[in-house]
Specification:
Layout: H1 9-14, E1 33-47, E2 54-57, H2 66-78, E3 83-87, E4 108-110, E5 116-118, H3 121-132, E6 135-141, H4 181-199, H5 201-204, E7 208-211, H6 224-241, E8 246-252, H7 257-269, E9 284-290, E10 294-296, E11 299-301, H8 304-318, E12 329-335, H9 353-373, E13 377-382, E14 400-401, E15 404-405, H10 407-417, E16 421-427, H11 433-439, E17 446-453, E18 459-466, E19 476-483, E20 492-497, H12 504-510, H13 519-529, E21 534-536, E22 539-542, E23 545-552, E24 557-562
Parallel strand pairs: 1-19, 2-3, 2-13, 3-6, 6-7, 7-8, 8-9, 9-12, 12-13
Antiparallel strand pairs: 1-16, 4-5, 10-11, 14-15, 16-17, 17-18, 18-24, 19-23, 20-21, 20-24, 22-23
Helix pairs in contact: 4-6, 8-9, 8-11, 9-10, 12-13
Length: 565
């Protein structure tokens, strides 16, 4: 059994509902695999949008808690003022106490005679926290306040779901259409007007506004037509308060099927329920794409092929309507699988280097798909944040555990060091996109590269060594050649994420997997989680060509940055 490394049998039983996943001790493997990577720094092959800078979570209230605030600082520092955050449950009725897949703000109540009561206190705390840390809202308008819900009599409003329960227990009174669409529109209008007054018009113009989450699935307990009406009234409320607001949707589960087809027809040529005009303002389109990991033969097997086919299917939809085909696209949730709050054997990739290498390998393929399909890809949103006051490395899909960064967060730090001009780069061990989409990475490992030039002239080369199967394998002995180097021979810096670098989970296991690390251990974990820049030697092969050798372990990621001279 590969799991509960460092835990006693008794502790393993105690934590079975929230496993501490990890990799077994390295076994003897074959000699390193030679790989040749070549970069031509003189040849730009196109733009590379920083679409990685989007994140999200089910629980909005974690943002204002100790570890949530700490993590938002980390996200804001990736690219201050350009990182976006999406959260469910922003309009839910409740006292603001978070729970699994639940949050609330109490933004709307009614008097006994049905008059609205707006309370911005909790929602302001959340958005204030974003803004103060350099993060901007990708504002999801949902879910339904209790006083407005048309849920059948006897339906509980708040759910009490927990990991292990069937997903159907999540769907309670918050998931229903409103009793009064005018009141729904007025709530959205008043909230948007309040945001403009509080944060300023220029600030709010930079936000994204979309309605609901995955209305083609269980999250919406109405008909498609009722959702189109809900969407129209909400967008009308936003645009009444701020005519220049950036609005779109529909953040469907997967490509969205016939529900998305109907939505796209409605917003382009249907009669708007709120205004009576033809069509609904649409500045961007959104859908979700997920992978499908399995637990097979005692280990996790990822489903990168499923994820990429989902992305491609979503692009099919966004390109289907000529009037919308050039609109910006945001993959509003893009993840290895569906439920961030659901630990389990198949999700045992989350704490260690499987998640980080998967992320490094998947984003370049999504970028390549968008370029191939001529899609205006603006955002790829990672649905991962943190789970407050849970056991250490409890197996949730998150970016940090108890305030300590997981390896995957360092891959986003690597992305933040990339430029927006993509350079010509090849690896003789990189698998073709079509092969991965067809059958994943099940044979030879994928040792790939992506190179960019930054605004200040640096060349940044991303390298990843990924396999769908979480089993030991040989390292990649990479010979990196960079041509077209400007000026004098540059120096270079190496950043790593692997079992021995920028990996707090690995360090925690070496400590004996303490349930409650003390202050000294906490400081050691913080240090272990951080990427440590390492100078590397470059050899001049010609006037404008340099080479270096780097060994990247299986499921490892590396970034080489040539320092500007």
């Amino acid at each position: 059994m590969r799991y509960f490394s460092g835990l006693s049998v008794a502790m393993g039983a105690l934590l079975m509902s929230a496993p501490s996943y990890g990799q077994s001790a390295p076994a003897a493997v074959a000699a390193p695999r030679p790989v040749a990577v070549s970069v031509d720094a003189s040849k730009t092959v196109g733009a590379l949008p920083p679409s990685w800078r989007f994140f999200g979570a089910d629980v909005p209230n974690y943002a204002t808690m100790k570890d949530g605030e700490k993590l938002l600082v980390q996200l804001g520092d990736l690219r201050r003022g350009e990182v976006y955050f999406r959260a469910h449950n922003l309009l839910n009725t409740g006292d603001g106490t978070p729970a699994f897949k639940w949050g609330s703000t109490n933004i709307y109540r009614e008097t006994k005679d049905g008059k609205p009561i707006y309370d911005w206190t909790n929602i302001d705390r959340i958005i204030d926290t974003y803004i103060a840390r350099g993060v901007k809202p990708y504002l999801q308008i949902g879910f339904m306040p209790e006083a407005m819900s048309t849920a059948p009599a006897g339906t509980p409003y708040r759910h009490n779901w927990r990991p292990g329960f069937d997903y159907k227990y999540i769907i309670t009174g918050w998931a229903y259409p409103p009793k009064d669409y005018d009141k729904w529109r007025e709530l959205v209008y008043q909230w948007t007007r309040h945001n403009v007054e509080r944060y300023g018009r220029a600030e709010v113009e930079r936000w994204y506004f979309e309605v609901w989450n995955e209305p083609n699935g269980a999250y919406w307990q109405g008909t498609p037509e009722e959702f189109y009406k809900l969407h129209d009234y909400a967008i009308d409320g936003v645009r009444r308060a701020l005519p220049t607001a950036r609005v779109g949707g529909m953040d469907s589960a997967g490509p969205g099927g016939s529900f998305m087809d109907g939505f796209l027809r409605h917003v382009t040529s249907g009669k708007n329920y709120a205004t009576g005009q033809i069509g609904t303002p649409t500045d961007f389109l959104a859908f979700h794409a997920k992978g499908d990991p399995k637990f097979v033969d005692g280990h996790v097997r990822m489903g990168l092929d499923v994820h990429l086919r989902g992305v491609n299917g979503g692009f099919d939809k966004t390109l289907a309507m000529p009037a919308l085909a050039s609109k910006p696209v945001v993959i509003g949730e893009s993840d290895p699988e569906g439920c961030a709050a659901c630990p389990g054997l198949k999700n045992g990739y989350r704490n260690g280097t499987m998640y980080s290498s998967y992320t490094a390998a998947s984003f370049p393929r999504i970028w390549a798909l968008a370029k191939r399909r001529n899609v205006n890809l603006e955002g790829v949103l990672t649905w991962a944040f943190e789970f407050e006051d849970q056991p250490w490395f409890a197996g949730y899909r998150q970016l940090s555990s108890n305030g300590i960064d997981l390896p995957v967060l360092n891959v986003f730090r690597m992305f933040a060091k990339l430029g927006t001009d993509q350079l010509a780069a090849t690896s003789d061990a990189e698998l073709p996109l079509d092969e991965i989409m067809a059958k994943g990475v099940r044979g030879q490992a994928d040792v790939g590269t992506l190179a960019t030039r930054t605004k200040d002239g640096q060349v940044a080369v991303l390298l990843w060594h990924y396999h769908d199967d979480d089993v030991p394998g040989p390292s990649a002995a990479i010979r990196l050649t960079i041509r077209g180097v400007r000026g004098r021979a540059p120096t270079a810096t190496l950043f790593r994420v692997d079992e021995d670098n920028a990996n707090a989970f690995s360090a925690w296991k070496k400590m004996g997997s303490p349930l409650n690390p003390n202050v000294t251990q906490y400081a050691a974990l913080e240090k272990a989680s951080a990427m440590q820049p390492q100078p590397i030697t470059l050899t001049a092969e010609a006037r404008d060509t340099v080479t270096t050798s780097i060994t990247v372990p299986r499921q490892g990621v590396a970034l080489v940055v040539l320092n500007a001279r």
